[in-house]
Structure formats: C-alpha cells, structure tokens
Amino acid sequence: MALTEETIQDKIEVVGEFKHVQVRTATVIKRDGTEISRSFSRHVVAPNISADDLANESTEVQAICNAVHTEAIKTAYATHLENQEV
Amino acid sequence: MALTQITGSGIGQVTNIKIGGSGSANTLDDYEEGSYEPVITGGTSGSMTTGDSATYLKYTKIGNVVHVQGQIHITASTAVGTILVSLPFASGDTSGLAERSAGGGVIFDSGGSGGVTFPTNTVDCCPYVTSSTSAFQFRVSKSNEGAASLSNTHIGADDRFAVSITYQTS
Lengths: 86, 170
Description:
The structure holds two protein chains of two kinds. The relative contact order of chain A is 0.20. By secondary structure, chain A is α+β, with helices and mostly antiparallel strands. Helix content of chain A is 31%, strand content 43%. Chain A starts with a strand and ends with a helix. By secondary structure, chain B is mostly beta strands. Chain B is built from no helices and 14 strands. In chain B, strand 12 (135-142) and strand 13 form a beta hairpin. The chains are: A alpha+beta, B mainly beta. The interface between A and B is medium-sized, with 21 and 28 residues.
C-alpha cells in the first residue's frame, strides 16, 4: 500500500469589480493512486499585492494577475481603499 | 418554511440546488470548507509572523456567505499602520453598506511583558469586514469619540486573537 500526497491549485477565480484573484489549494491524499482525501486552503490576491509577494505566487496566478490587475484596476482599488467609509 | 423543491444535476456533485423557488435567490451554488493561513500585514508596511501552532483559521462557505473562525498567535512583527488580516474569499460589494460585517473576537496578550494597548476610551473592539476587500481589520468603538482601527501601536508580538466572522462574498 502506497500513500502519496500532492498539493495542487485546483481553482483560480477572478471575482468582483477589482478583480480579486481567489486561489484554492487542494491537498490530495491517495492510496495506491486512488484519492481517499482532499482538503482545501485558500488565499486571495488583491490588486495591491507587492511585486515581491506576487513573485511568490505560482506562475499561473502570476499570469492571471498580470492580465487582470491593470494599472487602471490598481488605481481604482487604491482609491476604493482610501475612500472606504469606516 | 417547508422545503418545497430540490433540483440538481450530476451524481455525487450536485450543483445549483434550488430551494423554495426557482430564482437565483433560491439557488445554493457553492459549498466549501477548509482552512487557511492568514497573512497579517500593516496598512503602511511590514507584516506579522504567526506561530505556536496557532497559524490557521477555519472557514466554511455556504452560497455567498463565508464563516471564518479560529485563534492566531503573533510571534513577531514588522507591521506599521492598520493591522489587516487576510480573508479566504474577497468580500462583496452590494448596495449601500449592506455588505459590511462585524464579527466577534477577543484580543489578548500571551502573558508576557507587552500586553495589548487599546486606544483611549475604547468600549468595544471587533473584527470588521468592509466592501470589496481581501482582509479584515479590528475596529474599535470609543466613548464620545470617533471610531478607530487597531494598528501596530496597539497589538504586536506575543499578542493573540480569536475571531468568529460571517460575511458575504460577491
């Protein structure tokens, strides 16, 4: 009997006006190649992510962020955060 | 209300369950549970490090509602500015301020020398989710003063917090 564990980003979504990128990471446990367990963790990449932090994301997430987080979106999001009425 | 209708497609992975009607407001289109390691940053710069095996929050998402809970221990900090704790899903942005949410929580010190320093005249403090954001902050109600948010001058290394927040996604 062989147990294996793999981690994959199995869902990447772009949501909302400011194009937040939601990333789901699945940890999959298999016994002899058959999946017996799958658990999830999550994180969100906002348009104001730093270049250093973005470099730590997967290449796929980086590509999506570079595509959707345009300068216009970054500026609009920064304005949105500044104008949050709290 | 009695359950009047359930429909779905697929075997083992039912999607778009209709409950009590056929409209989008009657559709349960998502369910997920998991955990995540929140990233804690300062609104100006820097971040906080977590540890003591208290580094994860649990979440459950039902439709467009997300519930987050757990306890985090802060072991080190370079954060400057308002303390922001990442969420597992971005919050929504509905009309008015209806998407806003305030949860329950407690912030306390590990028993070390520092301790939590709440702003003067604080009467309440809770985790607070604003619109279209990927992080929550700790909002403080003050007696006879405007509200404030906790920053690095209030919480830092060796402090801990437990939260229970329910909020809406987009």
